[in-house]
Amino acid sequence: MFFSDTPKNLVLPRGRTEPRTTMESLRNSNKTYETGRIAAWTLSLTVIWLAVMGGGVVPGAATVAAGLTALVWIVVALGQRDNVSRHVRAAACAGGVFLAFLFITTIPVSINFSVFHGTLRYGQNLEALARFEQAAQLDLLATPVRRFALSRNVGGTLRIVVLAACVLSVGMLMSRMGMGPRRGYLRFLVLIGVLIAGAGHIGQTLVPQGHTLWWTIPIPVSQPGPMACFANRNHYAGFLALISVPAMVVLVDDVAARRWVHAVLMLAAVCVMVSSLIMSQSRGGVLAFVSGVVVVALWMLYRAVFPGAAPSDGRHPSIAPSRDGSRRHERRQWIGSAIFILAFGFLLTAGILWRAPAAVRARLGEGVRHPLTALSAQTRFEAWRDTLIIWRHYPVIGAGANALRTVYPQHRVGSHRESRTHSSNQYLQLLAETGIVGTILAAAWALAWLRALGMKIGRNHAGDTSAPDAAGAGTPPPDRNLFVGVTLGAVTVAAVHGMVDFPHLIPLYAVVLASLASFALPAPLTFVNRDGAPATGWRSAAWCIAVVLMVAPAWRSMHRSDNPHALPHASLPELMHVVAWAPTSWQAWYEFGRRCFFAQTWDAARLGEDAITRAAQLDPNNYLLWYEVGQLRMKMNDRSGAQKAFERVRELRSWVPIPDYDKRNPHRLP
Q1: In the Cβ-directed half-sphere of 480, how many Cα atoms lie within 13 Å?
Q2: CB within 8 A of 556, min separation 6: which ones?
Q3: 3-state DSSP assignment of residue 147
Q4: CA–CA–CA angle 119, 120, 126 (5° rounding)
C-alpha cells in the first residue's frame, strides 16, 4: 500500500526525558505515524486536484490547494508538537517573511501615501486618478478609486501570493512525513507522471486536444498547442523531466536492493515519461533532463570518493549499500550506480531519437548545432535584455510579482512581438518583479531550505530535536541516500529549466517541485516529551491560512484583471478597478477608453480617446494601437493629432498604408 509507515525503533533525542512506559512511547509513535499519513494523503489529493484542474490554471484551483495544504499543516503541527528540526522551522520562517513581502505589495493605500512608493509609481497613479475623476464628473462612474498598491499588477501578484503559500505548506507537510509515506508518495508522483505522459502522447498523435486542456477546458489559441493538462509543450516536457530524473534514482535504488518487480515497473515508467518528453520536441525540457541525470551521476561519484556514514541498517537497503561492510565494496557500488544511470539515460535517449520522426530529430538537432543563433534563442535573449531594463526602472522592490506582463510593453526595445507575459528566465524575472529586496528574501528562503536539507540527520546537535523515525539513535535513516538523490535531481532539473522557461509558475509543477525538493528533509520524531512539548510551526501555518483567507474573496478578480480575453466583457466600473490594480496595463487602459469613447457624448469620447492614447504610450512600439489612435482622432476632427499618430505608425511599419485625411470626413463624430 501507499503511505504505509509502521513505527520502528524509538529515538530519544538529546536533552529529552524518557517516556514513562513503553505503551506511552508506542501511543506517541502511532500519533506521529497517523499525522504523517494525513500529510501524505493531503499532498496526493492536492496533486490530483491540480492535475484535473488543468495544472492549476483554472481560476480558484490554486486557492483551494493552498487553503487545504495550509489547514492540514496546522493540524499536523499541533498533532506532532515539537517534532521537527529547528533548521526546518527556520526555513518556514524565511518562507513566511518572503510571503509577507509579496502580500504587502498588494495592499492599496491612499493616493496621498502612494507618494512614498516612488516618483515613477506615483506618476502612474496620478495618471489613472485624473481619468477616474473626469469619468466621475461625466457621470460615467459613481466614485473614483483613490487607492493604489505597490505592485503594478495586483491580480497577478495575488496569484503568486497564493502559489507561494501553497509551496510553503507543501514543503512543511513533507517535513512532517515519515520515511515510509515518503517512499509511497514518491511512487505515486511517478504514477501521475506516467498518466500525464500518456495523455499528452494521445493528445499529440491519436485524439487531438485542439485548444483545450484534458479535451474539456478551453484555453486561448496558441502554438503548437496544449498537451495533457499543460498549455504548451515546454511546460509539459519540464514536468516530465522533473519526475523522470527522481524516477531513475528510484530505479537505481530498486536494482541495488534487488527489488526486481519494483525495478521493472519503474523501468517501464521511466521509458514512457522520457519517450513523451523527447517526442514533445521541447529543447529546454530535454536539456533539463540531461542536466539532472549528469548531476545525479556526479553526486554518486562524489559519494564514492567521499563516503558518508553507513547508509543502511541491513533491513531496508538503499542506494549502493555496503553488504560486506568494506569500504572498497561500497565504492564499487557507488561507481556502478553512477555508470548505470549515465549509460541508461544515454542509451534510452539515443534509442528514442533513433526511432523518432525526422521532425523531432531536426528540431532537437538545431538546438545542439546552433544553440545561440536559433530563433527561439534570439527571442529569449531579447526578452532577457528587456527584463533587465525593467529592473533598472524598478530596482529596489521591483514592479510586483507577476507584473512583467503589464510593464514589459513599455520597456521592450523591438516591435515584432505584441506582448510577453514572462521573460523565459525565472531568475531575471524574479529580479525585475521583486527587486533587490525580494531577491534577497527569496535567496534567504532558499539558503535556509538548503541548510535544513544539508544537516546531518544521524546526529543530534545541541538543542536540535531532529532524528530519524526509522533507525536507531545516532544512525542515519536507511532512505537517506535515496531521498538526497531525488531532491538533487529534481532541484537540478528545475534550476536548469528555469533559465530558459517559466514552468515554476504552473501550480501543479510548483507543488510537485516543492514535494521533491523536500524529500531529503529530516523525518519527524517518533514520540514527544511525556510532560508535553510545545507545538512548533503552527504560527507559520496560521499565517499561510490567514493570507489565503484574505486573498480568497478576490479569486475571480485576480484572474480576470490581467486577462485580455476577459476585459472586453467587463463593465466600466470594473475596468476602473482593473486600471487601479494595473496602472501600466495597456489592455486595461484600452478597454477603459473604448468604453468611454462610445458613451454617446462628446466629452466622454474625448476622455476615451485620451485613455486609448495613454494605452499607446504604455506600449509605444505597438503600431496597431497608434493606428487606432489616429483613426479615433480623425473621427474627432483632430487633424494634427491624427497626423502625429500616423507618423508613429510609419516609423514602426513603413509598409502600412495611411488613410488620407479629409476635413469633410463623413465618419467623424458630430
Answers
A1: 24
A2: 59, 60
A3: strand
A4: 80
- Segment (H or E) for 217: strand 217-218
Which three cell numbers, joined as nine digits, stand for 58? 483554472
Question: pLDDT, tens digit, for every residue of 306-319?
Answer: 775 444 433 334 55
Per the prediction, the chain carries an average pLDDT of 83
The pLDDT value given to residue 319: 58
Q: What pLDDT was estimated at residue 32? A: 56
- How high is the pLDDT of residue 356? 83
d(C-alpha 236, C-alpha 390), whole Å: 29
Residues with Cβ < 8 Å from 648, sequence gap 6 or more? 616, 620, 623, 626
Residues 593, 564, 162, 101: what is their CA dihedral angle, to the nearest 10 degrees?
Answer: -50
479 band by pLDDT with thresholds 50, 70 and 90: low
Contact criterion met (CB below 8 Å) for 519 and 486: yes
For the chain, give me the number of helices (H) and strands (E)?
A: 23, 4
Using CA atoms, how far apart are residues 249 and 77, in angstroms rounded to an integer? 30
4, pLDDT greater than 60: no
**Burial category of 258 from C-beta neighbours within 10 Å (exposed 0-12, middle 13-18, buried 19 and up):** exposed
C-alpha to C-alpha distance for 26 and 597, rounded to whole angstroms: 74
Residues 13 and 86 sit within 8 Å (Cβ to Cβ): no
Q: Which residues pair with 209 in a beta bridge?
A: none
Q: Are 113 and 122 in contact (CB under 8 A)?
A: no
Q: Which of 308, 303, 356, 355 is nearest to 332 (CA)?
A: 303
- Burial code (b: 16+ CB inside 10 Å, e: under 16) for 90-117 equals bbbbbbbebbebbbebbebbebeebeeb
Question: Which one, of 204, 121, 646, 173, lies nearest residue 398 by Cα?
Answer: 121
Looking at residues 389-409, what average pLDDT do you find?
A: 95
Helix (H) or strand (E) holding 148: strand 147-148
Taking residue 331's Cβ as centre, other Cβ atoms within 10 Å add up to 17
Phi and psi of 23, rounded to 5°? -65, -35
C-alpha cell at 34: 497517523
SS3 (DSSP) at 71:
helix
Residues 143-164 pLDDT 10s: 999 999 999 999 999 999 999 9
Residue of 339, 267, 257, 331 lying closest to 298 (CA atoms): 339
For CA atoms 594, 600, 603, 606, give the dihedral sign.
positive
pLDDT at 503 over 50: yes
**CB atoms near residue 38 (< 10 Å):** 18
Dist CA 192 CA 516 (whole Å):
14
Instruction: Reply yes or no: is the peptide bond before residue 478 cis, omega within 30 of 0.
Output: no
pLDDT bin (cut points 50, 70, 90) of residue 534 is low
pTM as predicted: 0.88
* H/E stretch holding 212: strand 212-213
pLDDT (tens digit, 9 = 90+) per residue, 30-55? Answer: 455 577 788 899 999 999 999 999 99
